[in-house]
Fold these 2 entries.
Entry 1:
Amino acid sequence: MPKGLSPEDNWCFACGPANPIGLKLSFYEEGEKVKARFRVKPEHQGWPGLVHGGLLATLCDEAMAQWLWRRGFVAFTGELKVRFRRGVAVGEEVLVEAWLKERKGPLFLLAAQVLNAAGLPAVTAEGKFILKGHNP
Ligand SMILES: CCCCCCCCCCCC(=O)SCCNC(=O)CCNC(=O)[C@H](O)C(C)(C)COP(=O)(O)OP(=O)(O)OC[C@H]1O[C@@H](n2cnc3c(N)ncnc32)[C@H](O)[C@@H]1OP(=O)(O)O
C-alpha cells in the first residue's frame, strides 16, 4: 500500500466516514454482490438537475474495489469502462452494486451497475483491478 494510505484513517473519498467532503458510502453484502445506496445531492450535479457522470463512475469504481477489499485483496483500478445509459436526477436514491466476473492471477475483472430509483440500469461498468497486496 502506498505511503500515506492508511485504511484506519477512514479518508477514502467514496467510503471513508472521516472524509469531510466524502460520499460516505456504506456497503453491505447480498449474495455474491456488494451494494450501497446513495442519495444524490445538488452538489453532485453536472448538467443542471442531472448527476455528474464522473460521480457515477466513482460509485462503480468504489463498489468494485470494495468487493475486493472485503475479501482481503488490496487491488488498484487499472482500467475502468463506463456506459451511461440513463441520466440520474438530483435527489434520486440510487443503488450501486458490484460483483466478480473473472480472475486471472493478479488481474481481476469486475462488473458494476448503478440502478436508478425505478430499479433501471443508469450506468453499467467494468473494471480491471491489479492485485497489490492483502489486508490482514
Ligand atoms: C478505508 C478502506 C478503503 C477500502 C476500499 C478502498 C477503495 C478504494 C477505491 C479506489 C479505486 C481507485 O480509484 S484506485 C486509484 C486509481 N488507480 C491507480 O492509481 C493505479 C495507478 N496504476 C498503477 O499503480 C499501476 O499501473 C497498476 C498497479 C495498475 C499496475 O502496475 P503493476 O502492479 O506494476 O502491474 P504490472 O506488473 O504492470 O501488471 C500486472 C498485470 O496486470 C496487467 N495490467 C497492468 N495494468 C493494466 C491496466 N491498466 N489494464 C489492464 N491490465 C493491466 C499487466 O498486463 C499484467 O498482466 P500480465 O502481463 O502479467 O498478464
Entry 2:
Amino acid sequence: TSNAEWWRSAVVYQVYPRSFADSDGDGIGDLLGIRSRLDYLQNLDVDVIWLSPIYCSPQDDNGYDISDYEAIDPVFGTLDDFDNLLADVHSRGMKLVMDLVVNHTSDEHPWFVESASSRENPKRDWYVWRDQPNNWESFFSGSAWQWHDETEQHFLHLFSRKQPDLNWENGDVRQSIYAMMRWWLDRGVDGFRMDVINLISKDPGLPNGKPIAGTPFGDGFPHFSYGPRVHEYLQEMNESVFGGRSGTYLTVGEMPGVTVEQAQRFTDPARGEVNMVFQFEHVGLDHGPSGKWEARTLDLVELKESMAKWQQGLGDVGWNSLYWNNHDQPRAVSRFGDDGEHREKSAQALGAILHLQRGTPFVYQGEELGMTNVHALSIDHVSDIESLNFYQSALAAGTSQESAMASIQRIGRDNARTPMQWGPTGGFSDGEPWIALNPNTTVVNAAAQVGVEGSVFEFYRTLIALRHEVPAVVHGDFRLVEPLHPTLFAFERRFSGTLLTVAANFGTAPLSYPIAGEWLLGNYEQAEGPLRPWEVRIYRQD
Ligand SMILES: O=C(CO[C@H]1O[C@H](CO)[C@@H](O)[C@H](O)[C@H]1O)[C@@H](O)[C@H](O)[C@H](O)CO
C-alpha cells in the first residue's frame, strides 16, 4: 500500500466520547478521559481513532446537532485538551479522525439563528424554508418540516426539529464548511467521518414522496438520498479541502441507502470524492417491512449474500468500510451472535468474519470486549431521541407500551451507548453515569480480558496484528464458499500465492468443514474435527 492509501491497511476504533471515559466525575465522558485510556488503544494496536462529535452542541441528538464547529463542548473539555489529546495520539503513531456533521446544524447555531431572524436575512437561504411543507417524514418520526411562527414559514429537518438541514445549493454554505474543515486539518486531524453525507443534495422542487400506508407521510428518501449534485459537491469539497495538501487523509462517508453501484462511484480514487462509505445493507436485514422497529428474523444466507456482494462489488474499484456496529446500531454480539452461553466465542467469530474481509475494519468501543445490549427496563431509562420519538409516535398509533419497549430493547441506539466497561464495577466514572451501566460489567470488562489468553480482547488484538502482518488480509480478493449453507460462514482470500481460508460456525450444532493449509488462528484451542459452537478457524496456504 503506498503511503497515500495508508487507510487500506488500517483498523479504526470508534470512540463515543459521552460513554468512553469520564475524568472529572460528572458522569459524562470527556477528552481527558480518552487521553487516559490511550495505552489501552495502543495495546489493541488500532491505527486510527474516530471521535463521534465533541463540538459545542445543545446535545439534542448527543452532539450530532452542532452549534459551533470550531469549539469543543465544555462537557467534553477545551481546545487545549483536544490539542493535547491529538499530540498524544500522534506521538503514539496513531491517527485521529473527526466527525463531520454538515447535512444539518443545531437550530442554536448562529447561522440558523440569523437565517430564522427574518425572511430578508442574508442567511435565509442557508437553510430550506418553504411556505408549504411536502409530505416527507423525519428519520426521528413525525414530519420533516417545522412551522416557524416568527417568519411564518416551514423549515426542513430530516432529523430532529433542532437539526435544521443546510441548503447545500448555496455556495456560501459550502465554502464556509470547507473553511471549517481546513481549520481542523490545520490543527492536525487526519480525516473525517462524514455524517449522512449522501443526503446533502435534495431533488429540485422537493417533490412529495410516495405515500406511506397508514401514515400522513410519503417516502421522501428517493428524493434526498442520492441527489443530482451530491457527486459534484463531494468532488468540490475534496478539491477545496484536501487539494494541494501534502498529507493524506482518511475520509469515510456515512450513506444510508447507498448501493454498490453508487459506492463504486463515490469511492473510485480517480473521481476524488471519499475513500470509503458506510453502507447499511447488512444492518437492515433484520428490519421488517415497516422499518427498524419491526423485527425480522436474520437469515445467515442473506447476510453472507449481502457481504459477498459488497466484497465483490468494490473488489476492483473503490473500497469497503467493514463494521458490525456503531453508536446507532445495537451491539453486534446481541444482534448477530449469541450474548448468552456463547457470548465470547460468538464475539470472536464475528470479529474474525469481519476483520478477514477486504476493506477497512471499524471497531466500536466495547465490541472488542464482547459488550452486549442492555435491557432498558422502561422508557424512563431511554435517552436516545430517535427511540423516544418512536415510542411516542408508536403509542399514538395504538401500539402497546410493551411492544414499543420491546422494539427499543431489541434495536434502540442506547444499547450501544452505555458506559464503557473498564472493570467489574464499571470504571467509567466516579460519578453517576449519564446513562445506566450495563449490570453485566461484573463479568464483561476490560480488566478481566487485557493480557488474558482466550479473551475477546486478546482475540481482537490478534486479528488486528494479522492485518498488519499478512498482506493477503489487506489485498486478497474475496470468494464466498458454501453460500447457501444455513450456519456456515466461510470464505477465501487470495493474494500473490497466499490463500487464506476462514470458516465459522454461526450455530451450536457441530459442523464439519475440512480446510487445507496451516492453522493460523482460531477461538478454540487447535483441533481437527467438526467446528464447535461459534467456532472460527483461519488457515493459510502458500
Ligand atoms: O442513518 C442514520 C444517520 O445517522 C447519523 O446521523 C444522525 C443525524 O445526525 C445521527 O443521529 C446519528 O447518530 C448519525 O450516526 C441513523 O439515523 C440511522 O438511520 C438510525 O439511527 C439507525 O436507526
